[in-house]
Amino acid sequence: MVLAEISIWPMDKGESVSQYVALAVEVIDQSGLSYKLGPMGTSIEGEWRQVMEVVNQCYERLAQDCNRITCTVHMDYRRGHSGRLEAKVRAVESRLGRKLPG
What we know:
The protein is of the alpha+beta class. It is 41% helix and 26% strand.
């Protein structure tokens, strides 16, 4: 399974781009993959091809309305492991001995 964090936004729409980020999040939500929205990106979990297809769909959606798009993707593949959207956070919380905010 792949755990990916994607940030995608237009560069030609001014300072506030939340309406375009929302379009990408809608694509991610409709994909059926597990995801978690964060303030600087959205983490997605799935098989490589599924995740890459969602990234492509996010780009295609924004390209309908935007002339310049920036996208960053961080990916972590780990064979045989799933549920890492929550498990990775719990592992750090366990080491700290407490639950983190958020």
